[in-house]
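subagent[fold] <- orchestrator: predict structure for attached chain, return tokens only, no commentary.
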Amino acid sequence: MTEQKRLLSKKEVNQSHLIWYLAAETNNSYERLQAPSFCAAMSRNLRKIYPNDDDYKEALQRHLEFYNTEGTIGSVVVGIALAMEEEKAKGNLTGDVITGIKLGLMGPIAGIGDTLIWGMSKAILLGLACTFALQGSPVALIFPPMFSILIFVLGRYTCNLGYRLGSEAVPKLLKSGTMNTLITAASVLGLFMMGALSASYVKVSTPLNWVISSTGAAIGLQANLDAILPGLLQLFAIFGIYWYFTHKKQNYIKLVLTILLISIVAAFFGILG
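subagent[fold] -> orchestrator:
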């Protein structure tokens, strides 16, 4: 598609993104998940693409079918769908092709978005916010809105990118290897950040000590553990939580209550400090 053949203006594409940004995670249906939000994002521009009522209704029904992906990077699918609807209006595509592309992209796009946005960007920015907040610095207030601005700007860019490139957008990005490199780098950085945050803010120690009867000298268990590996108890705690998430049901409330109970009991008996 060349720029001269485009039916929608950048402003109209941005309107679709804005609706998707506001509704993607707020209007989920158990039957259709994000389909109502996706359809709402498409509806105004679909009316421009299909002046005929029957074609317009058919397009709305097409985008009300089950759909679910990550909201930020998933904006690219909104742009791609708009471009493909234009092609269908010209007789170059069928509705089944559009539906197939949407369903085929929602899984890979969700994996990319969850890694980059929720697994890396959010963890890093909110981790930095916690660091400054614990120091009493007002700089911490900057990071939460910074995350909101990031996902809005990135979503708008990917939506316009999808519209410009059409159905070739994601294949081009995936074949270039750029996304795989970015995901790998993000995963490594995320692991470093989680390790640094865990070492800094998970506090576990023990006051247990033994007195040697012959000399009366006290031997502290914590001092010996630190001599072997500083932060060993923190490491055990983190791996214990990781084991729970990988082998048991991910019940966060149960996990938090269990940690509180263990902490209270261990502190009462003088096992943990």
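orchestrator: received. Logging for downstream: The CA atoms of residues 132 and 140 lie 5 Å apart. The mean pLDDT is 84.
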